[in-house]
Each structure stands twice: as C-alpha cells, then as structure tokens.
Amino acid sequence: MSRPLALYIHWPFCVSKCPYCDFNSHVRESVDQAAWREALLADLAHEARLTHGRRLGSIFFGGGTPSLMPPETAAALIAAAERHWGFANDIEITLEANPSSVEAARFAELAAAGVNRVSLGLQALDDETLGFLGRAHRVDESLAALDTAQRHFDRASIDLIYARPGQTAEAWDAELARAIGFGTTHLSLYQLTIEPGTRFATDVAKSQWAPLDDDAAADLYELTQARMEATGLPAYEISNHAAPGQESRHNLAYWRYQDYVGVGPGAHGRRTGMATQRHRKPENFLTAIGRNGHGLQSETRLDAATQAMEALLMGLRLREGVDITALSKRFGMAADDLVDWAAVEKLEGLGFVAASPLPHAGRISVTPKGFPLLDAILPQIVAIEPAPAA
C-alpha cells in the first residue's frame, strides 16, 4: 500500500511587505476571492487526476497570508481534497498564520472548515524586535492570537527567530523560556538569515546594521538545543522541536522524501518521480488556469540519481537521519554510489555524524554537534553527482 500523499496549497497574497522576504511583489489591497477559489479548485482537481488512488495524510495552507483566506475558500478546498483523494484517519490540516487580531478573528471559522493545526509566526517576544523584523503585530496582540488558536485548534506551533543583531545569550534564553511556558508542543526556531534581494540584504550591504557573528550564533544554537532537550521538546529537524508524537507530519513528508503535490502560485511538488512548479506571479497563474485548466509552469521527470540526491539532502536534516539500505533499494543504486564512506568515517571520528558500519550501510545521521555545520557536511557525505542540464 502506498504512503499517504501530502498536499500543499499556496495562498500567494500578503497584506504587508516584509524586509527578509522576496515575495513582496504579492502584496495586494484587494483580491477577487471567488475567482481565486475557483482557480485553486481547478488546480487541485488537476493534481488529483494525476494521483488517483492515493489518500491524503496532510494538507498545509502556506504562502503569503493564508489565514486571511476566506474560511469558505478553505472549507471548499478541504472538501474537494477529501472528495478527490479521501483522508487518512488522522489527517493533519495545518494553516500558517500571522498572530494578528484580524486573523485570529477567523480561527473559529477556519477550525469549523476542517483546519486542526495552526502554525503561528510570533517571530519575537518584544515589540522593538518585531518592528525591526517588519512585523505589523505587537506582542500583546500575538499572545492573544495564540490563546485564541489554542482554544480552537487541536494543535498549535509557534515560530521564533533568533541570532538577531546584538542578541545576547541571556536575552534569548529568557525569551525561549517564556515561549516554552505557553504550553505549545511544537516550536520552530530559526536563525536569522539574510536572503539576497531583500531589504535586509540591502541594509547590510550599506552597513546600516551587522548580522550576529558566526561564533555568537553558534553559541545561541547550542543554548537552544540544550534548553529544548531539557524541556522535553528535542529537535527532530535542524530548526524544529516537538514533544514526541507532535512533530509536523506534513513537513516530515518533505524531509522523508515522500510524494507531495503543490497547488497555487509558486507551489512546488514532487509526485511519482516528477518535479512540478506552478507559475509564481498570480496573474500568470490565473492565465495558465484559464488556458490549460492548471497552473503548472514546468513538469520535469527526475532520474533516480537526482531523486536519491534530493532524498539524502532532505533526510539528513532530520535527527533520525537516512536509512541508506532502504534508499538503495528504492532508487536501484548501490550504497557506495550514494554516500562517500571515507568522508562519513572521517566525520564520524570528529563526532559530526553517526553511521552503521559497512557492509550493512544502515543509517546515517548528523549529530547535534554536526548540525550547525550541516551545509558544510552534506557536500562531503553525498556522493551523487547531479545529472547535467539538458
């Protein structure tokens, strides 16, 4: 029996510009909600026809500001998804939300529509930092939204950003302790990164402010891991922490390289060996829907080597690591062609990875000591060369 399918629905519109996001061209003052509901339903139906016979294990509403999607649109999409695919008994249906009073006012209706998990972008627990991050909400408003979310949804997750300019270990430890005290069973804790093409990148280039240096950021990472482990919310992925059994099942589908379909502007997907990408600009997406009945911009067959490489790169982000024997069987490749065992042995000696010895080639995982160096470790471990571009 095939594994459950994951469905990602991208709502493209934002309500305000964000200094560390490159999706700011999607800010809109008004949206034709009926037209967008029909477009998303058509795009969803197209993917359902191509994955007939699969059941859904999770749905994730993400993108710009999906919590401002009309509840009737969410309800229509959830109902259509169940009609097309059928649901696993314990389906997880997550909505990303900004913690504003406007969005929290919709939580009851969104829960009634079928959403059972919310991911709240608190980002920080002091108003000055929220202003720096370009967030429109204040702390008191975000905590009221969290309280509303915990009353209406079965599960709630919160996001925080750390390694901010000038942030001290003492300040972050106090903020983290406060966040843990809210009682959520899942926290996503991200180090601040400067993405090219964003306002933050421009500010740094102009020396208007400087990012936290690497050593200080590494110290905050270690503090985070120790605090979360001691609290019973260990990292199951490099930036995600949860109580046992409370992990995001949707995101686990990505990291375990299971099939997922992406619907909506800019959405990516991986289904039956195909890489899919939707038109990113909303107007282009709508044009494609009208012309083709779906919003696909590209659909590319991935060879076994490319799929195996992606599975390794994703799976090694997880604390559980990757079962090399299973990966070898899945993609028909020898274990020696997947992994550089000499590099694994060297990294294991340094305490950065843990591995089952050859000839069994069982499981490889990056250790907590190695996770801060993940970007440097992955190219050493993964032996697969990407296929040349056609």
Explain the overall architecture:
A nine-stranded mixed beta sheet has the order 7-8-6-5-4-3-2-1-9, with helices on both faces. Strands 10-11-12 form a three-stranded antiparallel beta sheet. Helix 2 (71-85) links the parallel strand 2 and strand 3 (87-97). It has two domains: 5-255, Alpha-Beta Barrel (TIM Barrel), CATH 3.20.20; 304-381, Arc Repressor Mutant, subunit A. It has helices spanning 33-50, 71-85, 101-104, 107-113, 127-132, 139-152, 169-180, 199-205, 214-231, 249-255, 282-292, 304-315, 324-331, 335-338, 341-349, 374-381; strands at 5-11, 56-63, 87-97, 117-123, 155-162, 186-191, 235-237, 240-242, 260-263, 268-271, 274-278, 296-301, 322-323, 353-355, 363-366. The chain has 16 helices and 15 strands. It is an alpha/beta fold and 390 residues long. It is globular. Helix 1 (33-50) runs parallel beside helix 2 and helix 2 (71-85) packs parallel to helix 4 (107-113). It is 41% helix and 21% strand.
